[in-house]
Write a structure and sequence with these properties.
Layout (H helix, E strand, L loop, with lengths): L2 H24 L7 H17 L23 E3 L9 E2 L2 H15 L6 E7 L2 E8 L2 E7 L5 E3 L2 H4 L16 E9 L2 H13 L8 H9 L4 H5 L4 E8 L8 H11 L8 E3 L2 H14 L7 E8 L2 H7 L9 E5 L4 E13 L4 E13 L2 E7 L3 H7 L6 E7 L3 E7 L25 E2 L6 E2 L7 H12 L11 H9 L14 H4 L7 H5 L16 H13 L5 H7 L7 H11 L2 H6 L2 H4 L7 H12 L1 H12 L10 H6 L7 E5 L6 H10 L3 E3 L8 E4 L5 H10 L3 E3 H8 L3
Helix pairs in contact: 1-2, 17-18
The structure holds 2-(butylsulfanyl)adenosine.
Length: about 700
């Protein structure tokens, strides 16, 4: 291809990929298979790599910046980000309508009703059709520049199509759909991290992350609802939403033009019911005057525009008796108090249980067994206790006391240092924690034994055949065959066992073979994944990779001190201590020994072709600091691909400090003191990455 042809192909690919992204993320109507989409994306990536001069900032490959920011810049909003007056009452909407009619003084108008998306507001600025800046609401006059995080949201166009104004601002709401929210909390639970209470908090927490690569994994979405530009001639807000959709924005198809109060009430009524089946949270309805030139005439109150109002859905609240409290032990060992309530009907379902979160939550509300409590559906999903009717408290009701021992295994509970959360520390003997670890061990990113799902893990555990991760490798055909039969008679009858409605879980020949085959194959899983699979507290996939590469083998990792561990990229005191604790336990050592005997990979197997090609980097320890002409991530990848190791802090063991622009003076001084050579990006490439 000539350079001209390459450029044309890149432009073509960008536009094709953008169109497919638009169909998938905005219209919710995929037009290409994942496989074919990946082929297009890979072709684009490869052309951009070969011809960096044609790389464009709005290319779909450039959604993730790949560099962690230290903090967000502050930006003053060109137009303040206003909030709306809120109401829970239909009669206040009547008052609102009356006021608007008076001020409109006979000029005809109508309204647009929209969903009130439950997320956080964002202001996007476009110049010549390209996304230039994204700013959070902040205090309304200035907010955080979160452009690199916003770029990762696939439904937000980086480049517009059609006939758009040269410069404009569009505002909307960043939300986390239920699917992403549930996935995120499931992951956090596995890692023993505190769960997000609702999708709004999760969306807000995600946008605050300083590393856009993490934000990209959070599955955020964004609805746009307010266009600001002097260059737009459309006189109606509803038409502005329509043209914004034509440029590529997700405006949602939920808004409706409503002539008057009756239509507004109907819209509210319809969505108060239908919202429960939406794939995201909405907490109300926003009612806006449709005629934009009336907005200026209607003006503002001290705080809010007079041309719009937000109606908030009422969370249905009921009161009932708190009969008792159970304590549930999760797969990470966290102990959660759960209220057993006198069954009560709430938003169409019967509620018998509600989470009490933690000891602190119970103490703050002074909730006691025997109390009459108020229950709401929090975030529309999980019922929660929102208050106590103390007037109805029986005399001499004692304050609530949290249990001291694990209800599953009896171990003395521990509290996380500064938090109010209780944990059972005996992960090796506590049944839910053992099952959690077994599931984690076989999961896709760990040993990838896909023939073992949660149901089968439960079966293996309950039958006593597998009580720790090494037991998988002792399983024989006869241990598994027909495991799970409810009664022996079923083995001989032609009828289905009495497990009506539930998937039959008896292990037959084929399943047993699949399980044994999966276990056998897992012996080829590389060391870094084995290390992740072991479930050392706080050691996630990435940390396991860094630890494996740094130490090279389980023996060396086992002997490492806290200080040495803290040399490893992304390993702080908490993780280092968890690793040391893990290997200080004799039972863990015995399990590791058994895994070793079974032939699992316990050291890094070096890829010879790679080392031969870039032999100069192999085994060298680097600290990377400052800003480079390519992303810091790319630099790190180059080092690791060549067998080099990234450290987070300079020590005597560091071979080189790779310094970009603006490297901190402290680091420079430390390198000098310890005699560690400091090399520039250019020196690095000419010395180690010869092309
Ligand atoms: S319009 C000047 N429309 O609700 C008018 N806001 O209480 C700007 N929100 O701060 C806001 N969905 O964060 C508007 N369809 C919608 C909305 C919406 C959610 C949020 C927004 C705003 C708050 C108002």
């Amino acid at each position: 291809m000539t350079e001209q042809e390459v450029k044309q192909r890149i432009d073509r690919l960008i536009s094709e990929i953008d169109t497919h992204n638009y169909s998938y993320y905005v219209l919710d109507n995929p037009t290409i298979s994942d496989y074919d989409f990946d082929i297009l994306l890979k072709e684009l990536e490869s052309l951009e790599k070969q011809y960096p001069q044609f790389k464009q900032p709005h290319s779909p490959t450039q959604r993730v910046g790949g560099q962690s920011a230290k903090s967000f810049g502050t930006v003053v909003h060109k137009e303040p980000l206003l909030s709306l007056g809120n109401t829970y009452s239909l009669s206040e909407i009547e008052d609102f309508d009356k006021r608007v009619r008076e001020l409109a003084n006979g000029v005809p108008f109508d309204y647009v009703c929209e969903l009130k998306y439950d997320g956080l507001s964002i202001s996007l600025e476009y110049e010549d059709g390209l996304l230039m800046r994204a700013v959070t609401r902040g205090d309304g006059t200035k907010g955080d520049d979160v452009t690199s995080n916003i770029r990762t949201i696939k439904s937000i166009p980086l480049k517009l199509h059609g006939n758009f104004p040269k410069h404009f601002i569009i505002r909307g709401e960043v939300i986390m759909p239920h699917k992403s929210f549930n996935k995120l909390n499931a992951q956090r639970e596995k890692l023993g991290l505190e769960l997000f209470a609702n999708p709004r908090n999760a969306a807000s927490g995600s946008l605050k992350l300083l590393d856009s690569r993490l934000v990209a994994k959070r599955g955020l979405d964004c609805f746009l609802y307010f266009l600001i530009s002097d260059e737009i001639t459309q006189p109606l807000h509803s038409e502005r939403l329509k043209i914004a959709a034509q440029w590529g924005f997700k405006t949602g198809n939920y808004y409706r033009v409503c002539g008057g109060l009756q239509n507004i009430f109907k819209y509210i009524d319809v969505w108060d019911k239908k919202r429960k089946s939406l794939p995201f949270d909405t907490d109300g309805v926003v009612i806006k005057v449709n005629q934009v030139d009336l907005w200026a005439k209607l003006g503002f109150t001290a705080k809010f525009p007079r041309w719009a109002i937000a109606y908030k859905f009422k969370a249905e609240r009921v009161s009932t008796l708190l009969e008792s409290v159970d304590f549930q032990v999760g797969r990470t060992g966290r102990v959660t108090p759960v209220a057993n309530l006198k069954p009560v009907s709430l938003s169409g379902t019967t509620v018998k249980r509600a989470t009490l979160n933690s000891e602190g939550f119970i103490r703050e509300m002074d909730i006691r067994v025997g109390d009459t409590v108020f229950v709401e559906k929090g975030g529309e999903i999980i019922p929660k206790i929102v208050g106590v009717d103390t007037a109805l408290r029986p005399l001499h009701t004692p304050p609530f006391r949290f249990i001291e021992n694990c209800p599953e295994c009896g171990a003395l509970l521990q509290k996380e240092d500064d938090e109010e959360l209780h944990f059972c520390p005996d992960s090796l003997h506590c049944p839910p924690q053992i099952k959690g670890l077994l599931s984690h061990f076989v999961s896709r990113k760990a040993m990838d034994i896909f023939s073992l799902g949660d149901e089968r893990i439960e079966l293996l555990y309950n039958s006593g055949k597998v009580r720790n991760i090494a037991d998988f490798y002792d399983l024989k055909y006869n241990d598994l065959f027909l495991l799970g039969s409810p009664v022996v008679a079923d083995l001989f009858s032609q009828e289905e066992p009495l497990t009506a409605g539930k998937k039959q879980s008896v292990l037959k020949e084929k399943s047993v073979e699949n399980i044994l085959d999966g276990i056998e194959k897992s012996k080829n899983v590389p060391f870094e994944k084995v290390l992740y699979a072991m479930g050392i507290r706080y050691v996630g996939e990435v940390t396991a990779k860094y630890l494996a590469r740094y130490f090279g083998s389980i023996e060396r990792l086992q002997q490492a001190s806290i200080n040495e561990l803290m040399n490893v990229n992304e390993v702080g005191e908490r993780i280092a201590a968890a690793v040391v604790d893990f290997f200080a336990n004799k039972e863990n050592i015995a399990i590791v020994e058994r895994l070793k005997k079974h032939g699992l990979k316990m050291e890094i197997v070096s890829d010879k072709s790679n080392n031969m090609q870039r032999g100069a980097l192999y085994g060298l320890k680097f600290v990377v600091s400052g800003v480079f002409s390519i992303s810091r991530d790319e630099i790190k990848r180059q080092i690791e691909d060549g067998g080099g190791i990234i450290l987070s802090a300079i020590s005597a063991k560091t071979n080189y400090v790779l310094a970009g622009e603006n490297m901190g003076p402290k680091k420079k001084k430390k390198a000098e003191t310890l005699g560690v050579p400091v090399i520039s990006e250019q020196e690095f490439f000419s010395k180690f990455v010869k092309s």
